[in-house]
């Protein structure tokens, strides 16, 4: 490590604005800003999408169709052709074979210049032609016969760009930025101090990663011998070096958030355990070992004087709700209010019922608040919450509203949290703030998140895992059928329901529009009711009034409905153990996590359950892979792993959170193997090189570190 680095690193690590480079006027600067390039370092982190190999000349006889190549040869003939379109054809040869150049657009001057006997060097994609291989509209220029290539040739980078910014422009600018980088690494005092090496030498050596400046240089201007395959995969050490530091920056910023949180105060909630004993005695089941372990972790956290920030992960149906209820009792018993928030009305309603059933016998006062609570009902709820009379409040994100004021909020449960982002999570916590005291928070995921992703996206949280399902659950048998066999499936539903089963029929639609979804469900329910006159068929969708929804769900739960036609509103949390058959129409439209969630509505009782995934052909490759995954496994963790590989992290975490996990270079799915090292390095830096933490975060996340100040 250079001596000056540490002091420089603590200085404000700003890069020069992009206009500092030659050739960047206001207009170009504006266009570059569209690519996220505002400062010189942004340009250095703007990596090529791919590379062209113009470092070697491929003999024409060795060309392969489909590949791009640099060739040269003597023009043998050139011809105008008048077919459907006018075109110019030129034939070149290098002694190993001949190749046709085909132009649809050309000038008279171009045409005149392509005289037999001159030599051309061309670059383009090789295609099959009628007689020989061809290049259509290649780049070309005239050369001396058999002119050799320049000696120090490098691979040619192709950058992501935007309208009005040419590749040549970006290349010229990166050339400038790279020479500034070289100059600054040669001296310890001036220049781009922000690009100084911030990772300890011994660490880089151990991880087999090159220093930053070298890595940047390599990815922008790889030598001729570089492996295109490694570069294309993103696994070249130079790329991994950059991805590593970017992931490290994200990890450090999350860890800072965590540290900040630890330094804050929360009410320490003592456990007497009387209420808990009462609830446990009333449950028709025993907690699983995993549930017990997680409750112990939660209990311990809530006794601490700093706010718990804990994420409970577990597969669909593992019994997260009762864990939350037991934690609520700890808060209530200690004299604090608790709040349980769910992302949908239907799920919140279900929690309301569960909690009412469990907690009202213990004489606990509950309030309910959703977006649909209006008028007197709403003001009564608000008054109860404000006065502290409501010991538990259940609701939707209506609980974020400004008028919602708690008396003594000590504990917040956020269910199915992947639909809420970090910011919302923190906003709710802020709500419970009293002077300098924050409530404890328990976050429950709907479906498992692969460990690597959780380590990154939720690095500010402690993790608890419920890795065990309640005993007696039978695996769900899943079949995948084309929708041409819908009638058969309808008859199968009929038989099942006639023999005492209850079933869901889920309608999906591509459009996000809730109205259209509901219409589709209304049509389906009419059809199904007609096809199945001897069954009791009902409909639930997002457009129904809360009371109507609740009434339908209650009737279904009570066994008064055989077949419940639904939109994906039933996706999360709905719990009717007697339902044992689910049909999902157009299953190919849904993501894996969503399918798994939906399917998790069955298989909750003692009956063997079935799930039929109907699809509309033709299936995309991804669609096929998803449905195969559903058929092959019902393990949520396995499904999550496949989902990560298929779709990447943004989709898994839900749209609201994608912005928080957008990396310039790293790719969590691709780079997950390095995450343990990233975590270890983050701890090492915080302990041994604390002054480097802020510059690394700033370098990658900008001044307003995305997680820092919420
Ligand atoms: P999820 O983790 O998906 O939110 P729930 O909390 O809805 O799961 O629980 C699913 C079902 O399992 C509920 O009917 C619940 O009452 C039941 N349950 C929870 N814990 C146990 C247990 N230890 N033994 C048996 N059933 C349980
Ligand atoms: Mg749940």
What does this molecule look like?
- With 710 residues, the chain is α/β, with parallel strands linked by helices.
- It contains 27 helices and 21 strands.
- It has a 7-stranded parallel sheet, sandwiched between helices. A 6-stranded parallel sheet has the order 16-21-20-17-19-18, with helices on both faces. It has a 5-stranded mixed β-barrel with strand order 2-3-4-6-5.
- It is globular, with a radius of gyration of 31 Å.
- The model is unreliable at 1-13, 655-659 and 704-710 (pLDDT under 50).
- Bound molecules: adenosine-5'-diphosphate and magnesium ion.
- Residues 285-288, 291, 314, 316-322, 470, 575, 577, 604 line the site of adenosine-5'-diphosphate.
- Magnesium ion binds at residues 320-321, 573.
Number of strands: 21
| Strands in their spatial order, largest beta sheet | 11-12-10-13-14-9-15
Structural class of the helix and strand makeup?
alpha/beta
CATH architecture descriptor text of one domain: 3-Layer(aba) Sandwich
What characteristics describe this protein?
single chain, 710 residues, alpha/beta, OB fold (Dihydrolipoamide Acetyltransferase, E2P), Rossmann fold, six-stranded parallel β-sheet, 27 helices, 21 strands, disordered N terminus, disordered C terminus, binds adenosine-5'-diphosphate, binds magnesium ion
């Amino acid at each position: 490590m250079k001596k000056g680095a540490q002091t420089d690193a603590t200085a404000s690590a700003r890069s020069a604005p992009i206009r500092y480079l030659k050739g960047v006027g206001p207009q170009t600067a504006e266009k570059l800003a569209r690519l996220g390039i505002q400062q010189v370092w942004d340009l250095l982190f703007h990596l090529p999408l791919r590379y062209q190999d113009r470092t070697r000349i491929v003999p024409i006889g060795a060309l392969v169709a489909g590949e791009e190549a640099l060739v040269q040869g003597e023009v043998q003939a050139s011809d105008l052709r008048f077919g459907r379109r006018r075109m110019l054809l030129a034939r070149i040869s290098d002694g190993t074979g001949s190749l046709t150049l085909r132009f649809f657009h050309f000038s008279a001057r171009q045409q005149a210049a392509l005289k037999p006997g001159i030599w051309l060097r061309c670059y383009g994609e090789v295609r099959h032609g009628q007689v020989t291989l061809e290049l259509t509209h290649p780049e070309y220029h005239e050369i001396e016969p058999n002119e050799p290539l320049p000696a120090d040739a490098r691979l040619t980078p192709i950058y992501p760009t935007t309208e009005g910014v040419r590749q040549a422009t970006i290349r010229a600018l990166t050339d400038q930025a790279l020479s500034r980088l070289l100059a600054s690494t040669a001296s310890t005092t001036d220049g781009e101090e922000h690009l100084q090496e911030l990772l300890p030498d011994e660490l880089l050596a151990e991880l087999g990663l090159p220093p930053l400046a070298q890595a940047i240089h390599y990815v922008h201007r790889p030598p001729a011998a570089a492996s295109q395959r490694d570069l294309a995969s993103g696994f070249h050490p130079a790329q991994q070096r950059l991805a590593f530091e970017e992931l490290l920056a994200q990890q450090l910023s999350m860890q800072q958030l965590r540290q900040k949180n630890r330094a804050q105060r929360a009410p320490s909630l003592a456990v007497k355990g009387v209420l808990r004993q009462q609830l446990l005695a009333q449950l028709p089941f025993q907690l699983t070992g995993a549930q017990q372990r997680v409750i112990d972790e939660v209990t311990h956290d809530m006794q601490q004087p700093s706010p718990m920030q804990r994420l409970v992960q577990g597969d669909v149906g593992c019994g997260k709700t009762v864990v939350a209820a037991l934690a609520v009792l700890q808060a209530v018993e200690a004299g604090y209010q608790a709040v349980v928030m769910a992302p949908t009305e239907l799920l919140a309603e279900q929690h309301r019922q569960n909690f009412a059933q469990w907690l009202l016998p213990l004489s606990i006062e509950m309030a309910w608040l959703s977006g649909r609570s209006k008028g007197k009902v709403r003001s009564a709820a608000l008054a109860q919450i404000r006065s502290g009379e409501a010991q538990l409040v259940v609701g939707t994100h209506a609980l974020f509203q400004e008028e919602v004021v708690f008396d003594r909020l000590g504990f917040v449960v956020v269910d199915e949290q992947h639909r809420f982002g970090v910011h919302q999570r923190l906003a709710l916590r802020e709500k419970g703030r009293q002077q300098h005291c924050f409530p404890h928070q328990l976050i429950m995921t709907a479906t498992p998140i692969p460990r690597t992703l959780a380590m990154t996206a939720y690095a500010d949280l402690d993790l608890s895992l419920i890795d065990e399902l309640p005993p007696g659950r039978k695996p769900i048998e899943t079949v995948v059928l084309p929708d041409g066999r819908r009638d058969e499936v309808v008859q199968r539903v009929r038989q099942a329901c006639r023999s005492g089963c209850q079933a869901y029929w889920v309608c999906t639609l591509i459009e996000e529009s809730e109205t259209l979804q509901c219409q589709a469900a209304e049509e389906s329910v009419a059809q199904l009711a007609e096809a199945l006159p001897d069954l009791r068929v009902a409909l639930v969708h997002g457009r129904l009034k809360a009371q109507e929804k609740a009434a339908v769900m209650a009737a279904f739960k009570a066994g008064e409905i055989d077949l419940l036609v639904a939109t994906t509103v039933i996706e999360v949390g709905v719990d009717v153990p007697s339902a044992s058959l689910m049909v999902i129409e157009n299953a190919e439209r849904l993501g894996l996590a969503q399918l798994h969630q939906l399917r998790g509505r069955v298989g909750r009782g003692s009956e063997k359950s079935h799930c039929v995934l109907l699809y509309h052909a033709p299936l995309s490759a991804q669609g096929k892979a998803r449905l195969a995954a559903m058929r092959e496994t019902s393990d949520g963790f396995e499904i999550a792993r496949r989902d990560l590989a298929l779709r990447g992290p943004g989709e898994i975490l839900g749209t609201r959170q994608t912005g928080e996990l957008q990396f310039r270079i790293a790719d969590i799915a691709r780079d997950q193997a390095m995450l343990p090292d990233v975590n270890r390095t983050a701890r090492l830096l915080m302990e041994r090189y604390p002054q480097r933490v802020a510059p690394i975060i700033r370098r990658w996340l900008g001044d307003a570190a995305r997680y820092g100040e919420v």
